[in-house]
Design brief:
13 helices; five-stranded antiparallel beta sheet; binds 2-acetamido-2-deoxy-beta-D-glucopyranose; alpha+beta; six-stranded mixed beta sheet; Agglutinin, subunit A; Hepatocyte Growth Factor; 5 domains
Length: 805
C-alpha cells in the first residue's frame, strides 16, 4: 500500500513534468514560453527585487510587464515597464514565447498575429531571456551579445542606469487605473533639449522648461551632439543638454525610479523600505497647474495648498468622464446657432481666471464693450480674456476659440468672460453649484489586481531565493498530488485556494479566526448577509470578524476575491479599515478594525453624542461616502447607508462600514442593470428602488444619508411602527411640514422651525446656523427626485462652507 502511494506520486510527478510547459524562475530558454494561465510563470531577478510576467490591468486583461516584486504597504505593485500597454491580452491562453530562432513573441489567445514582438534573431542557438537585478529584461545570445533589452524601450519609468536616448521617450499612463499611453511625454526635442510635451488628440504643446524662456535661459544647451540622460543609483541625474540635478536624498542607494506621472509631472521617487511607500525626491514642476492640458477643455485648474491640484468645470459645464479630468468638461447648454444680427449670447464674468493660448485675435486698447461685440460676432469665439496692461496703461482683449490650460489664481490680475447663451443664463440653471472635484492620486500607482504573484515575504537575497525555491518545489509537489488525485477521480473541481489575491492585507485561515474569536463567542452585530464577532488577532489587534452567510456568499471564489481586493483599495479616514479576509470553502470572512463605540444606531439616543459630535458625524460620513462615490478609484455604491453601518471610533468620529451590498458601477454608469432586486433597509431606501423604471445611481446613497441625518437630528425613526409595505416616508414628510408651516421658512435667521424639529432630548447647545444648514442639506438629500439631490461631495462642501445653492 505504502509503496503504491509512492509510486503514484512518482508517476504524477512525471506526468506533471511532462505536461507543464515551463515554470521558469530565472531564465526563459529557446522554444519555451510563459503562459498567462499558469500562475507561476514569472521571471524573477536574481536578487528577486524585480518580477516579469503577465500583469492584470483590468478584468481578464493582462499586459506583459516588469514590476517591483514586493508590494507597497497597501498591496499595490509598482509597474516599471510594459510590452503591450496599448493592446492588453486575454486572461486565458495568451503567452509570451521565445521562438527557436530567438524571436520573442507575445500572442493573444485567439489571434494569429502577434500582439508584440522583438523581431530578433539568434544565430547561436542558445539565447536566453533574463531579468537583471537592475530591472532590465534582456535577451542575450551565447556569445554574450544583447539582442534586445527592455531598457531600450521604456514606457513611463526610467530605472537607475537606464539611459533615455534620442530613440526613446517616457509616455505617461492614461490614468491611475488605465496603463495605456497617455498624453504627456518626456522627450529629447529636435534641438537636443529634454522637454515635457503635452501631446493630446487635438493639440500639442511644450510646457517644460518654461516655453516663454529660451533654452539657454533655462540652463539648457542646444549644442550637445548626443542626446542621452540617466539617473544613477545615488539619485544624480545628468542629461546631455546640461540639465543636472540631485534627488533630495542623494548619496544613499534606496530603490529609485524616475516616472512620467499621470498628471504630467516628472518625478523621482525613492522607496521608503520601512513604510513600503514611495517618496518624491525631485519633481520637474512645483505648480502642477503649469502642466498644460492637465484639467482638460472647458475647465480651470488651481493650486491649492491642501489638495495639490484642483480642477473645476466652468459654470454651466459638467465633466465628460467623471473618473478622468483630462477629458475636460462639456457645456450643459446648446451653443446658439450663429445667425447674423441676433443677439443670443451673454457673458459670464470670471475674475482672476486665465486661459493660455488659442487666441482668435489680439485687440489692444479695447473697451470691454468692443471686446464683447467682437466675440459675439465670431461664431467660434468661446469667450475672451480681458486684462489691464500696466506698462502701456491699456486694456488688452484676447478672444479664444478653445478653452484649454485654464487656471485660477488671485495673483492673476485679469478676467475671463465666458460666452453663454442668454437662454441658459436666464433659466434656473443659475443656482447650480460649480462642479468641482480634486483628483490627487499622484505618487503611488493605485492598481491592485487579482494576483498572479507569489506570496512575498520580507526575507532578503539568497535565503529568500532558497525559501522561494522550497515553496515552489513543495507547492509543485502538492499540485501534482492534487492534480493526480482529481485526475483519477475524473473530477473537475478546482483545488482549494486556486486563486490568490495580491492585496496588501492578510489572508487568514479559518482556524486562526476561530481562535481569535474564541470560537465565535462574542457576537457584536448581525445584518442581512452576515454575523459579526469580536476577536483578538495574534498580534493583539482587536478586530471585528464578519462571517458572510452562505446564502449571501454563494458567489464564486474569484468573485469574492475580486470584491475583497477592491475593498482593500479603499482607504479613507471615514471608511472602516479592512485588515484581511478568509476564503476557505463555504467560509467567507472579512476582518475589520474594531470600533470601540459601536454604531450610530446604538448611540442615537445616548447623551454621549452632543450636537457638536453629531455635526462631526454628519460631515465625516459625507466625506466617506463622497470618497466611495467619486474620488480616484472605482465608483462604489454603498446601497445600505443606515445608522447601523456608521461606526464610531474612540473619539466618536464616524467610519462608514459594511460594503457587503455594494456593487461596483461601470465608469460610464452602465452597470445599473445589475440591480435587479432591491437592496438596502426599509425606511432608508430611496424611491428609485421601488420603481423599476428608475435608474440606480449614487443618489440612492445620498437619499439614505439624508434620512440618517434627519433621524439623527429629530430622534424619530424613519418608519412608522406598523411596517406597512410599499414606499412612504413619514419622517421626511413630517420634517418638510414643520419647515413649511412655520411661515418664515428658510430664508432668515428667525429660525423657530429649528426648535420644532430637533430632538429636545439631546442635551447641550447647538449653533443655529450650522443646524439650519444641516437640516436644509439633509432635506435636499432626501428629495424624492434623484436629480434634486446634491452629490456627496457637494454635501461636504455645503456642510463645511455653508450653503449658497
Ligand atoms: C545587469 O546589471 C548590472 C548591475 O546590476 C550591470 O552592470 C549590467 O550591465 C546589467 N546587464 C544588463 C544586460 O543589463
Ligand atoms: C484606457 O484608455 C484607452 C485610451 O483612452 C481606452 O481605449 C481603453 O478602453 C481604456 N481602458 C480601460 C480599461 O478603461
Ligand atoms: C550633486 O551631488 C554631487 C556629489 O555630491 C555634487 O558634486 C554636485 O554638485 C551635486 N549637484 C547639484 C546640482 O547639487
Ligand atoms: C496630494 O498629493 C500631495 C503629494 O503628491 C500630498 O502631499 C498631499 O497630502 C495630497 N493631498 C491629499 C488631500 O491627498
Ligand atoms: C467645450 O465647450 C465647447 C463649447 O463651448 C464645445 O464645443 C466643446 O466640445 C467642449 N469640449 C469638450 C471636451 O466637451
Ligand atoms: C487707446 O485708445 C484711446 C482712444 O481710442 C486713445 O486716445 C489712446 O491714445 C490709445 N492708447 C494707446 C496707448 O494706444
Ligand atoms: C489690476 O487691474 C486693474 C484694472 O482692472 C488696475 O487698475 C490695477 O492697477 C491692477 N493691479 C495690479 C496690481 O496690476
Ligand atoms: C427649471 O424650472 C422649470 C419650471 O420652474 C422646470 O420645469 C425645469 O425642469 C427646471 N429645469 C431644471 C434644469 O431644473
Amino acid at each position: 500500500m505504502h509503496l503504491l502511494v509512492h509510486l503514484l506520486i512518482l508517476v504524477s510527478l512525471i506526468l506533471c513534468l511532462a505536461s507543464s510547459s515551463s515554470s521558469s524562475l530565472s531564465a526563459l530558454k529557446l522554444d519555451s514560453s510563459l503562459s498567462v494561465d499558469n500562475k507561476d510563470d514569472f521571471l524573477i531577478s536574481q536578487d528577486s527585487v524585480f518580477t516579469a510576467g503577465f500583469y492584470s490591468v483590468g478584468e481578464n486583461v493582462f499586459c506583459f510587464s516588469i514590476w517591483f516584486t514586493n508590494p507597497l504597504f497597501n498591496g499595490d505593485r509598482t509597474v516599471v515597464w510594459m510590452a503591450n500597454r496599448d493592446a492588453p491580452v486575454n486572461g486565458k491562453r495568451s503567452k509570451l514565447s521565445l521562438s527557436k530562432t530567438g524571436n520573442l513573441i507575445l500572442q493573444d489567445a485567439d489571434q494569429e498575429l502577434p500582439i508584440w514582438t522583438t523581431r530578433t534573431r539568434d544565430t547561436t542557438g542558445s539565447a536566453e531571456l533574463r531579468l537583471n537585478n537592475s530591472g532590465n529584461l534582456y535577451l542575450q545570445s551565447k556569445d554574450e551579445q544583447i539582442l534586445w533589452q527592455s531598457f531600450g524601450s521604456p514606457t513611463d519609468t526610467l530605472l537607475p542606469n537606464q539611459p533615455l536616448t534620442k530613440d526613446a521617450m517616457l509616455v505617461s499612463s492614461r490614468s491611475q487605473t488605465n496603463y495605456s499611453s497617455g498624453f504627456y511625454r518626456l522627450i529629447f526635442d529636435n534641438d537636443n533639449v529634454l522637454r515635457l510635451v503635452y501631446s493630446g488628440p487635438e493639440v500639442t504643446g511644450v510646457y517644460w522648461p518654461n516655453p516663454e524662456l529660451r533654452a539657454w535661459d533655462s540652463g539648457r544647451s542646444t549644442y550637445g551632439s548626443e542626446r542621452t540622460a540617466t539617473i544613477d543609483p545615488f539619485g544624480r541625474f545628468i542629461s546631455s543638454d546640461g540639465l543636472f540635478f540631485n534627488a533630495s536624498d542623494d548619496g544613499g542607494q534606496p530603490m529609485r525610479r524616475l516616472t512620467m506621472d499621470v498628471d504630467g509631472n516628472v518625478r523621482v521617487y525613492s522607496l521608503d523600505e520601512g513604510n513600503r511607500m514611495w517618496r518624491v525626491t525631485w519633481q520637474a514642476l512645483a505648480q502642477t497647474c503649469a502642466i498644460h492640458g492637465s484639467c482638460g477643455e472647458n475647465s480651470t485648474c488651481s493650486n491649492e495648498p491642501n489638495y495639490g491640484r484642483k480642477c473645476t468645470c466652468l459654470p454651466y459645464h459638467k465633466m465628460v468622464n467623471r473618473a478622468d479630468w483630462s477629458y475636460g468638461c462639456e457645456p450643459e447648454f446648446r451653443s446658439s446657432s450663429c445667425v447674423d444680427g441676433e443677439d443670443k449670447d451673454d457673458f459670464l464674468h470670471l475674475q482672476h481666471f486665465d486661459f493660455y493660448g488659442y487666441d482668435l485675435k489680439y485687440l489692444p486698447n479695447t473697451t470691454l464693450d468692443v471686446c464683447m461685440k467682437e466675440c459675439k460676432n465670431m461664431c467660434n469665439c468661446k469667450g475672451f480674456q480681458y486684462k489691464f496692461d500696466k506698462k502701456q496703461g491699456i486694456f488688452l482683449c484676447y478672444p479664444k476659440f478653445l478653452l484649454l490650460n485654464g487656471f485660477g489664481s488671485v495673483s492673476f490680475n485679469g478676467s475671463f468672460y465666458l460666452k453663454v447663451p442668454t437662454s441658459a443664463l436666464s433659466s434656473n440653471y443659475t443656482k447650480k453649484p460649480i462642479q468641482q472635484l480634486e483628483l490627487n492620486c499622484s505618487g503611488i500607482a493605485r492598481e491592485v489586481q487579482l494576483a498572479r504573484v507569489y506570496d512575498q515575504k520580507k526575507e532578503q537575497g539568497s535565503i529568500k531565493f532558497l525559501l522561494l525555491f522550497t515553496y515552489v518545489f513543495g507547492a509543485f509537489e502538492i499540485i501534482c498530488i492534487v492534480y493526480f488525485f482529481y485526475k483519477t477521480r475524473k473530477s473537475v473541481t478546482k483545488p482549494e485556494g486556486y486563486l490568490q489575491v495580491a492585496t496588501g492585507f492578510e489572508r487568514f485561515s479559518y482556524a486562526d479566526l476561530k481562535k481569535a474569536s474564541e470560537n465565535f463567542k462574542t457576537e457584536i452585530g448581525r445584518g442581512g448577509g452576515a454575523v459579526v464577532y469580536k476577536g483578538v488577532l495574534s498580534d493583539n489587534r482587536v478586530a471585528a470578524i464578519k462571517c458572510l452567510k452562505e446564502s449571501d456568499s454563494n458567489q464564486g471564489e474569484a468573485e469574492f476575491l475580486a470584491e475583497v481586493s477592491t475593498l482593500g483599495r479603499l482607504n479613507h479616514m471615514n471608511l472602516i479599515n479592512i485588515w484581511g479576509y478568509c476564503a476557505e470553502g463555504k467560509h467567507k470572512i472579512l476582518v475589520y478594525e474594531y470600533m470601540e463605540n459601536g454604531s450610530l444606531a446604538e448611540n442615537l439616543h445616548s447623551n454621549k453624542l452632543d450636537w457638536d459630535k453629531r455635526f462631526e458625524i454628519a460631515v465625516g460620513t459625507a466625506k466617506g461616502l463622497a470618497y466611495l462615490h467619486e474620488e480616484c478609484l472605482e465608483w462604489v455604491l454603498h446601497c445600505d447607508v443606515k445608522p447601523h453601518n456608521i461606526l464610531l471610533d474612540q473619539d466618536y468620529s464616524p467610519k462608514v462600514a459594511d460594503f457587503g451590498l455594494s456593487k461596483f458601477l461601470d465608469r460610464d454608469g452602465r452597470g445599473n442593470s445589475e440591480f435587479t432586486k432591491a437592496r438596502g433597509t426599509r425606511g432608508y431606501m430611496a424611491p428609485e428602488w421601488f420603481f423599476v423604471s428608475l435608474p440606480i445611481t449614487s443618489k440612492v446613497d445620498v437619499y439614505s444619508y439624508g434620512v440618517v441625518m434627519l433621524e439623527m437630528i429629530t430622534g424619530k425613526s424613519p418608519q412608522r411602527g406598523d411596517q406597512s409595505g410599499g414606499y412612504e416616508r413619514p419622517m421626511v414628510k413630517w420634517v418638510q411640514e414643520k419647515v413649511g408651516t412655520t411661515a418664515d421658512g428658510y430664508d432668515d435667521m428667525s429660525t423657530s422651525w429649528i426648535e420644532a424639529i430637533v430632538d429636545s432630548r439631546v442635551e447641550g447647545e447647538y449653533d443655529r446656523i450650522r443646524m439650519g444648514t444641516l437640516i436644509k442639506v439633509a432635506l435636499q438629500c432626501a428629495e424624492e427626485h434623484k436629480d434634486a439631490r446634491p452629490t456627496m461631495s457637494q454635501v461636504v462642501d455645503m456642510l463645511l462652507h455653508g450653503d449658497d445653492c
